[in-house]
Amino acid sequence: QTVVTQEPSFSVSPGGTVTLTCGLSSGSVSTSDYPSWYQQTPGQPPRPLMRNTNERSSGVPNRFSGSILGNRAALTITGAQAEDESEYFCLIYLGGGIWMFGGGTKLTVL
Amino acid sequence: QVQLQESGPRLVESSETMSLTCTVSGYYIRSGYYFGWIRQPPGKGLEWIGAIHHTATAFSSPSLKSRVTISVDTSKNELSLKMNSVTAADTAVYYCARFVGNIFDSWGQGTLVTVSS
To answer: Which of A53, A86, A89, A96 would you call most buried, defined as having the most Cβ atoms within 10 angstroms of its Cβ?
Structure first.
């Protein structure tokens, strides 16, 4: 069974740049898999960040950007701020109407 | 502005059937778009359960498909989730969300369902 993989954790200094990635246990992620990204803080529902690889949702700061890096979807935060400390999830289309979330990456800003 | 609210029993007995409802306001389900169910066990990640269109076209996660029924009632502007034969592993916060342009753009606050043995 296909699994969507993400780094379990990442750390970035304030003002620094970090790239979180999202891959498939079998195969590559492409734009045709419509990767999207969500940010979640404890006790809150996820907040949509990015759709279709690189389209920012309304109100999302432009320090967030999306891309395909090699065979993985990527979310880059350029100039990280303390408020970016959250858990980040990707969502990938597997085909046949089926979607799957990655396991999430806990981002620490310190 | 679309709003979604999950409701249903917070405690379900093991092996029983869990039923949740998502009431949508500020948007008519019959206008289009898919609506989905997502769950999150305490301290763990998100799991896509499934999604449904107002035409009743529905998709479910292969790992849950045999136990899950997703339905929609456009007259009440609601969608529903039923999951049978629940176990402790089904204890989670259950979210409903609207799916637009390949992203869940609006989410309910979620409801914690605990399966007791």
So the answer is: A89
